[in-house]
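Supplementary Methods, section 5.1.

A reviewer requested that the exact input to the structure prediction be made available. We therefore reproduce it here, unchanged from the version used in the analyses.
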Amino acid sequence: METRYYLTVYPLEALIASQLDPVQFGQYMAIGRKYGSFEEIMFAELSGGFGTVFDWRYAKERCVAHADGEPKHSVWLSVYRVLENTPLSALKSLYLTTKDGRTLELERGAYAPPKNPNDYWVYQELCPITPLVVSALDPHTFSEYLTDSKNKVSVPKIVFTDLKTVDLETYTNTGNIGAAYDKNLDHLKECILSVRGSEDKPNKNVERSIASFSYQIINHGVYVSDGTTIVQYTMLTVDDIRRRHYDWGRSAMIL
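The structure derived from this sequence is encoded token-by-token as follows.
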């Protein structure tokens, strides 16, 4: 059986070897073997064997089928600085698994500047840090800012997503984004006004860590960047999800 390598980025950062394909792996990680746990998980498949930080030999020795032929579900290789030590060239598709184990594949693509009707963005950082941020910067510029070592606070690489936002004038025009901003709407407004009126501070934290996140509020896509290169995983449209991934869309509360 083929050994595969997965980088999980939400809700935890880890490198895991497995003989399961991405759909099987997503189901296993979300609900477990005995259906005792239920949580969303976002992960990317990697082409393994890069660098010397991770023990690829150990992975191959341990990631073998059981005596009865059942595939090895997981061999954990690292839970620390995984993204930092993973070249962007090793990233394949990204997978979004719901709490009941349904998985959607987003194919890797080149960065395409998304259209934005507002003069601000809302980003959920996912890995290795997890603030909810309002920014005056587009995704590429935002990622450059976060990974710039000249700044007092920076990271070597970042995974984040841009979020749908409420219509601040007429909430009923917002559409389906769940209860993401229910408890911090006033603070969100203050943060938006802050970045709109300041050239010195283009980013403002709304929450210091993930408080409420679901796939239904992903807007254009998920981004992975090292400051020089940015990989984009474009989110599917609601119509495409309805036509081709209906069960996943229902599970993710998009449909």
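The mean pLDDT is 91. These observations are discussed further in the main text.
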